[in-house]
Amino acid sequence: MTQILFADDADLGIIQSRRVAVLGYGALAAAHALNLRDSGVKVIIGLSSTTRAGAKAQEQGFEVQPLAAAVAAASVVLVALPLSRQVHIYDSEVAPHLAPHDTVIFTEGFNVRYGYLRPAVGLDVGLVCPQGRVHELRDEFVAGQGIPGLIAVQQDASGMAWEVVKSYAAAIGLTRAGVVATTFAQATEAALFSEQAVLGGGLNRLIQSGFETLVEAGYQPEVAYFEVCYQLEQQARRLGEAGVWGRRTAASDLAEYGGYTGGTRVITPEVKTQMKAVLAAIQSGEFAARFMADQNAGAVELKTLRAANENHVLESVGTRLRQLAPKTVP
User: Fold this and answer.
1) 3-class SS at 153?
2) Which of 49, 73, 106, 153 is the most buried (most CB within 10 A)?
3) What is 21-63 written as a DSSP string?
4) If you ran DSSP here, which 8-state letter would residue 8 be given?
5) Distance CA 295, CA 177 (A)
């Protein structure tokens, strides 16, 4: 049975009794660090103080040390480094300075799940994934609330890994909303599937295809953009508040009826078959291998795909309309 954990399920004192090294100081790492500090946790930032991010961390009152020194000074390490650089930096500047039973926490499980990064057997290894936009992690915390998240443990060398991870999640505010206990594999694979088949690739292609269908049939590009893209923000808000069924029934009878009859014509059984193929490639590691090979080759395929999509007419139309109404048009 799925465990959903809240504040009473975590002992905040555990993480408060330890020193946390946050490696990196991008938007996500900064939100973690600030929330930890506000929860009474001793935090050190692992980063060169000569970088812009390092200077910002110092300005915000954090002690900043080179990666190796920060890791050596802490017993809990948050790896919030760019995915493509993570393995090299971990192997060269993090792993040599970890002590037995130290806890290493990741914000995404890709490198651990697919074996590109292999923490030593004597370490505790956890995953803490806030579910929401980066700024919400900090904003909701400051407002006295929180956003939900996922937590997992890959290695429990000390017998305390789950308790440390739960305490860490509490310190950044996730247990205020609730965290789901899962595994590295499930969290990583589900996130990749969502990015490729639903919220990322699937939704983007659906929008582009809808836009192209209307424009090719003679509809004004601006009208097409408003109908297939602009309204998504409002629909997403309703979806978050009421779920799929609640969003459907909040619409007019005309929209609800059309959604049922048209949706099954567009999203056919073949779509689900292709989704299963996408998931199989994720589970087998085929997608991970393709991505890493492309990264190692200079991201040639990624750059080609990016170039093919960034010049789509949908983007130029959207840019023009966003200038007309920057606060309301997504």
Assistant:
1) strand
2) 106
3) EEE--SHHHHHHHHHHHHTT-EEEEES-TTSHHHHHHHHTT-E
4) G
5) 36
> In the numeric block, which tokens belong to residue 67?
């990666």
| Residues present in the chain in total | 330
Q: What is the pLDDT of residues 114-154, one digit of tens each?
A: 999 999 999 999 999 999 889 999 999 999 999 999 999 99
Residues of the chain under the 50 pLDDT cut: 328-330
Number of helices (H), then strands (E), in the chain: 18, 9
Instruction: Tell the residue number behind the tokens 């905040």, with chain if given.
Output: 12
Q: Which residue has the tokens 């030593």?
A: 120
pLDDT value, residue 329: 42
Tokens of 90: 């971990």
What confidence tens digit (pLDDT) does each residue in 220-249 have?
A: 999 999 899 888 877 877 877 888 888 787
Q: Which strands form 149-155's sheet, in the order they lie side by side?
A: 3-5, 179-182, 149-155, 124-130, 103-106, 76-79, 19-23, 42-46, 63-65
Burial degree of 203 (CB within 10 A; 0-12, 13-18, 19+): middle
Question: What residue ranges define each of the domains in the chain, with the CATH number in brackets?
Answer: 2-181 (3.40.50.720), 191-322 (no CATH)
Q: Which two tokens stand for residue 151?
A: 């937590």
Separation of alpha carbons 171 and 165, rounded Å: 10
